[in-house]
Write a structure and sequence with these properties.
The protein is of the alpha/beta class. The chain has ten helices and nine strands. 49% of the residues lie in helices and 14% in strands.
């Protein structure tokens, strides 16, 4: 994959991994569409990205998503790459966590990211090209204590991405699932407590994590190399991720099923019963 001249739309682009991805993509010749809720911070990122479009909206607002999608496509006539990065984490025991925390995290980290993808896959499939990148987490490979809602959402996002990859393999659209470990961002500081309040402090592991610009570079290198699963982690987290890595042969098997008409056969069966 060559990023030069490509239009890449990134959610959660005002800080952390999203901002680092935007800057790196721009340095590789990409045109970036930046989304998030804070227009001022998006403008700061855009200032480092050459030609950039700011499309601020809340990822949970599906009406706003529709307007944002139209604006992103209209800018250059197409979107080549979509990075579903927006998200929020958690630091609380399941025994103490309010259900509203589960609903909030799953809504942002899973449902909103699916909606973002669904808004673009028809556009990409019709063009016969495109790439979708989903920012999951090592906590989306291995259930991590104090992150039950977060792990549930990130596991779910990975499952959606894997199924979508198989479906779109016949449409020229690639799907990349990215599993970061501890990256030096505000993810822990912005995480939710058991009652839904913002934690406000960071973890040592996050503070000493991979610099965001290094993580972003590795993610884009993995996409450029057409890697379907991209694990960005160090030490124990890397070992956890690699232990749960999906075999490439399994991805190939799923794509082979699709190429052999699996979806058409199932649709025919459904139509025959209606």
């Amino acid at each position: 994959m060559d990023f030069n001249g490509k239009v890449a739309w990134i959610t959660g682009a005002s800080s952390g991994i999203g901002a680092a991805l935007a800057r790196d993509l721009a340095s590789r010749g990409g045109h970036v569409v930046l989304s998030g809720r804070d227009e001022g911070r998006l403008a700061e990122v855009a200032a480092d990205c050459g030609e950039a479009l700011i499309v601020p909206f809340d990822v949970r607002d599906e009406a706003a998503l529709g307007e944002a999608t139209a604006a992103a496509i209209a800018w250059k006539g197409h979107v080549d790459i979509a990075v579903a990065n927006a998200g929020i984490s958690q630091r609380s025991r399941a025994l103490k966590t309010n259900m509203d925390v589960y609903r909030n995290i799953i809504d942002i980290d899973l449902i909103a990211q699916i909606a973002f993808s669904q808004s673009l896959i028809g556009h990409m499939a019709d063009r016969g090209l495109g790439a979708l990148a989903f920012i999951s987490s090592i906590a989306g490979k291995v259930g991590v204590p104090m992150r039950t809602a977060y792990s549930a959402a990130k596991f779910g996002l990975a499952g959606y991405a894997d199924a979508l990859r198989g479906e779109l393999s016949i449409n020229g659209v690639s799907v990349h699932t990215i599993y970061p470990g501890s990256v030096a961002t505000n993810v822990s500081r912005n995480a939710l407590n058991a009652d839904g309040s913002v934690r406000g402090v960071s973890d040592k592991a996050i503070e000493n994590g991979i610099p965001a610009h290094e993580a972003a570079r590795a993610m884009l290198d993995g996409m450029a190399n057409e890697e379907r699963e991209i694990i960005i982690a160090e030490r124990a987290e890397l070992a956890m991720g690699e232990l749960r890595r999906t075999p490439e042969a399994l991805f190939d098997q799923i794509e082979g099923m699709v190429a052999a008409g699996y979806m058409q056969n199932m649709e025919a069966e459904t139509a025959g019963q209606s």
